[in-house]
Design brief:
Strand content: under 5%
Helix content: over 70%
Number of helices: 4
Order of helices and strands: HHHH
Radius of gyration: 14 Å
Shape: globular
Structural class: mainly alpha
Number of strands: 0
Length: 105
């Protein structure tokens, strides 16, 4: 069951969320501003907040945790020159750690 769950997580969460929040939302948000630096900062903030809020069913601590994770992933996305695969792998590794902890608990 762990491997089946992880395969779904890699497709939906790691790949899907990164494409949506970093690849699409951050890119489109940053395009609205002439000042690249300001656009990137607002894109990081917006993607972090939206990413955190879609995990509201995890409770307050889940929102805070995913908000922190979203911020790090958004910042990393810009630092690696918008290489989405780095984020997909990082997101997948974090989700793998979470799922292994849940299954071993």
């Amino acid at each position: 069951m762990l491997l089946l769950s992880l395969s779904g997580v890699y497709v939906v969460s790691a790949f899907g969320e990164e494409v949506l929040f970093r690849g699409y939302l951050m890119t489109r948000c940053a395009e609205f501003f002439d000042d690249r630096k300001l656009g990137n900062r607002i894109a990081i903030l917006l993607s972090t907040v939206v990413f955190a809020l879609i995990h509201y069913d995890w409770g307050v601590m889940g929102i805070i945790q995913t908000g922190c994770m979203g911020f790090v992933l958004a910042y990393a996305y810009l630092r690696v020159h918008r290489n989405l695969w780095v984020n997909i792998i990082a997101h997948g590794v974090m989700d793998t750690i979470l799922f292994v902890q849940l299954y071993l608990a």
